[in-house]
Specification:
Length: 160
């Protein structure tokens, strides 16, 4: 027996005003992840609006990055595009961060063919990032998930 849509709606009404606080909480982040995973698509989409304007700070935070990753897995492309837009000027910072690099990797995994904002951030910086503890993981993910060589050609050219 699961929760009804009406019960889920009531729960979301309670959680939504405190969404960011719950997202960065050691225990609250699990609640937010489960709501994202099991909520009705309309409710989850409504809930995702609460993340707007907070993607960078959540991506750099230990528990927040887990929620952003879960959201990238379950939310529609419109959310993923919002994430890309909010992170496009902070990709190098995220790539070199112990939490943020996981969000960038999840973007690569869940946004095939739309990782130009990540590749562009590596421009002129590939050697440094390829030798960075987290940057090398992001480059690996790009090489694994980008089916079109043209997408990662700028990175390959700098490496070679």
């Amino acid at each position: 027996m699961g929760i009804t849509e009406a019960e889920m709606s009531m729960l979301l009404d309670e959680v939504t005003p405190n969404m960011i606080d719950l997202t960065v909480d050691v225990f609250g982040n699990y609640v937010v992840q489960k709501l994202l995973e099991h909520g009705h698509p309309n409710q989850v989409t409504r809930m995702s609006g609460g993340f707007s304007g907070h993607i960078l700070e959540l991506s750099l935070q230990t528990y927040g990055c887990r929620v952003v990753q879960k959201a990238l897995e379950v939310l529609p492309m419109s959310f993923k595009e919002m994430v890309a837009d909010e992170l496009k000027n902070s990709v190098p910072r995220c790539v070199q961060d112990q939490n943020g690099n996981h969000v960038i990797q999840k973007c690569i995994e869940t946004m095939p063919g739309q990782v130009g904002f990540i590749v562009n951030a590596f421009n002129g910086n590939v050697h440094h990032l390829a030798t960075h503890a987290y940057g090398c993981r992001v480059i690996q993910r790009l090489l694994e998930h980008c089916k079109e060589t043209a997408e990662v050609l700028p990175i390959l050219n700098e490496i070679l």
